[in-house]
Design goal:
By secondary structure, this protein is of the alpha+beta class. It folds into two domains: 116 residues, Sufe protein. Chain: A (Alpha-Beta Complex); 66 residues, DNA polymerase, domain 1. It has ten helices and three strands. The N and C termini lie far apart (38 Å).
Amino acid sequence: MYSKRVLEHFQSPRNQGEPADWDAVGKVGNPICGDVMYIYIKVKEDKIADIGWKTMGCAAAIATTSMISELAKGKTLDEALAITRQDVADALEGLPPIKMHCSNLAADGLHKAIENYRKGSREGESKEEVLAQFIRIPGVDEKTANILWEQGILSLDELLRLHPEELAQIKDLDENKIASILKYAEEQAKTCG
């Protein structure tokens, strides 16, 4: 059951759409539920002067994107980066456990937009750049890379954060490919941490 606050943000979403002259966008998706979020930011003097979004997904996905836009607007980039999935869920007076991934996506989308802005990249990596990164994973070919992209996985970072159960839900992804991706993710975690 959704809280009154979730239903309010679903039925009357805030800051929906692309703001004029946006500076960067964060694109994120979840292959299991099919949610895809685009979060656009306009930055002035290191603050989020305007924010907008487009979300294809369930009521919780729309509500969390609406809420993150309210939480981030007017904040410095560092303050906005500190917004967590739990902050989003708390501001919505809770989410059903099965829908918590939506708040994670909203926070990730905002963080990705800020990351792209700081890198001087309006839209982040192109499809071709992301597919090339996927193909560098041993055992992942061009066909598999395209399957991952079509499932809404829009970055290597996003792919490497997926759990085995989430990978198993992706149609046309066999056990060997899943094992290759998980092994690569484990190796990257050791290298980075």
